[in-house]
Amino acid sequence: xxxxxxxxxxxxxxxxxxxxxxxxxxxxxxxxxxxxxxxxxxxxxxxxxxxxxxxxxxxxxxxxxxxxxxxxxxxxxxxxxxxxxxxxxxxxxxxxxxxxxxxxxxxxxxxxxxxxxxxxxxxxxxxxxxxxxxxxxxxxxxxxxxxxxxxxxxxxxxxxxxxxxxxxxxxxxxxxxxxxxxxxxxxxxxxxxxxxxxxxxxxxxxxxxxxxxxxxxxxxxxxxxxxxxxxxxxxxxxxxxxxxxxxxxxxxxxxxxxxxxxxxxxxxxxxxxxxxxxxxxxxxxxxxxxxxxxxxxxxxxxxxxxxxxxxxxxxxxxxxxxxxxxxxxxxxxxxxxxxxxxxxxxxxxxxxxxxxxxxxxxxxxxxxxxxxxxxxxxxxxxxxxx
Length: 386
Description:
mainly beta; 15-stranded antiparallel beta sheet; two-stranded antiparallel sheet; 2% helix
């Protein structure tokens, strides 16, 4: 993507998968009546056990955001701009239990937030991500069980899920009090599948699960993985962290689709502050975003997204780590999606952000002379599917 520093490799990735563990909805129609992390689908319950799987990896500057603490957060490439990350590796099981049940085992992209890393899953219409996305875990390591509810056909389709995982973006349960994190929530689809409603929550211990740092020649380099929040307790006290996401999508007609998302998060403060962005008081963060996608021509779409996000205490290191205080970001994103071929998608995109708060949120200019409260990003996204 073009930047002041020149042409950088955002990432190039590869997904190898089998069956319904593959990205749904575009490559092939699902064969189950329940898809992991996507929810209930029309059709009868499958009558046999199905074992699918997926493995994905990428190389590029985005690699740091998709690493897993304790797995691929290697020291040997911690000071590289372009890094390798194994973004997902899991088994996806379908079991003929109840009205249909799925089990994920391994490492997988989170279900939280509309703009999740599972890039082919509606309603992800944009190449860039929201601030709500930046306030949630990117991935989990553990298990997620989802089961369909036996509703009458006239009541729509519904499912509930429960997951037990390690810390955010990590294979372990952290230090001190430790213990797993829990995912739970529910999904509902209207009988005609035009309206989707999801409520999803992750709860666990937010103490000392920040990503590791590698120091080379006196320079600190984040190794990737871990959470975006640094909360520490001198007595290893359990520090609650909870994030809840509510997503609503609706297809108005065959050409126009709408999406709404609300997100609320809380991090209990610790009593240690070895770095200036450590969280020493209870902190909340929350926001909303709305968007739409409109079909201009058979293979051409236009989209827009509008967002407001508040981090009252700059709890997220992506805020506090660059010198910002608490405040609000307002963002507008516009894009065009061209499905040039069934296996080629081109998405040019513009994103404008404005920060209102104490401090400066966005990076200095290339001469390092000043930080900014606004920024304009241009993205040209290509997807090749085979």
